Amino acid sequence: MSSGHPAAEDAHHHADVSGGWLRAAVFGAMDGLVTNIALIAGVGGGGIAPRTIVLTGTAGLVAGAISMGLGEFTSVRAQNEQIAAEVAKERRELTKFPEAEAQELARIWERRGLPPELALEVASTLGRDIDEAVRVHAQEELGVDPDDAPSPWVAAGSSFACFSVGALVPLLPYLLGGTSLWPALAAGGVGLFVAGALISRYTRRRWWVSGVRQLLLGAAAAGATYLIGRLIGV
């Protein structure tokens, strides 16, 4: 909705898309929901006793949350280390060959429509400040901002916590004393729909479309494991 003034005048008119927490949180929550819904559906379909289902689901929650947290930490840290190595290489090139680097940056801007003389002048002027030149070259050549790298700790924590919450949802009916599989699947379905609807706040898509999409994906996974459980049995 328009606020009556240009969005560019608002310093926070864009959402944070580079902090590293949103992707990890969304992936963690969805993975926790789908993993434990499918796991519970599979063992429940095989006729396992409720107590064993709780044990299985709890083990899946703990193992999955730890795995997700470690995986996010390792992947984000490795990505940051790769970026740091490339930025260091760019800094060395700018120090040793400033004219060649300025021409390279100017060619990039020329392809975007800037006049050649102006592009070279701006690139050469920018090269006088080595730190700013490194930042701009990294953005233009690598597509990253070296000053805005995602935190591996934030990514790991978001993934761990959200996986745990998601995996807990289908377990709740059993933890509250239930003995039937279907309330657990229903709780998981509600969790999937709500999680999808919440994601729409960041993606600006229709909340019910996002909710139904996540519900259908989770239902497909649960349906597959339930059938396998029924076929194999106890």
UniProtKB/TrEMBL annotation:
Keyword Transmembrane helix (UniProt): yes
TM stretches of this protein: 153-175, 181-203, 215-233
Subcellular location(s) per record: Endomembrane system
Predominant subcellular localization, coarse grouping: membrane
Record key words, sorted: Membrane, Transmembrane, Transmembrane helix
InterPro entries: Ccc1_fam (IPR008217)
Membrane topology: Multi-pass membrane protein
Protein name (database record): VIT1/CCC1 transporter family protein
